[in-house]
Amino acid sequence: MWLGVYLSVFKFVSAQEEINMFGFGFKSKVKKIVEDELECFVTPMFAGRFSNVVKEGKIRGTNEYTVAIDFVLQITEHLESVWSEETGKVESEEIILRIKERCDNLNKVLKLSDAFQDEHSKQIQDLISKVS
After folding, report:
1. Which of 76, 132, 85 is nearest to 107 (CA)?
2. If I label 91, which of 56, 100, 114, 120 is the partner at 20 to 30 A Cα–Cα?
3. Could you give the count of Cα atoms lying within 13 Å of 130 in the half-sphere of its Cβ?
4. Residue 126 forms part of a structural domain
5. Does residue 1 lie within any of the structural domains?
6. SS (H, E, C) the chain
7. Taking the model in full, what pTM does it have?
């Protein structure tokens, strides 16, 4: 009997590993949301940050949308800070447009997040006000 239970658990764990191996795991779902719905990319420069945000989200037990929003907010805030470093305000119209587009996309999926909606909404509004 114990052997049967062990084999069932082993099959389940193996199936989960296979799912993750073929891209259906939590991290892959978050990346798909980042790319397809938020129209951003996990560049090599931010790959480590992306992994950390995913790991933190899994520990907190938040859903894929919350984690994707966290990540895109972080990289967008970084974009704004880099481009406003010299003058205190982003002056490039291209960057302003990119930040506004990201904020629009974030607002579209915000309701699908299962945590931090008020905090995320405030962060989005702060970004918009910095470039308006």
Report:
1. 76
2. 120
3. 26
4. yes
5. no
6. CHHHHHHHHHHHHHHHHHHHHCCCCHHHHHHHHHHHHCCCCCCHHHHHHHHHHHHHHHHHCCCHHHHHHHHHHHHHHHHHHHHCCCCCCCCCHHHHHHHHHHHHHHHHHHHHCCCCHHHHHHHHHHHHHHHC
7. 0.81
What tens digit of pLDDT does each residue of 50-60 get? 999 999 999 99
Q: How confident is the model over 1-24, as pLDDT tens digits? A: 555 544 454 454 444 444 444 456
Contacts of 90 (CB under 8 A, 6+ apart): 80, 83, 84, 96, 99, 130, 131
d(CA 67, CA 73): 10
Rounded Cα–Cα distance for residues 121 and 53 (Å): 18
**Does residue 17 form part of some domain?**
no
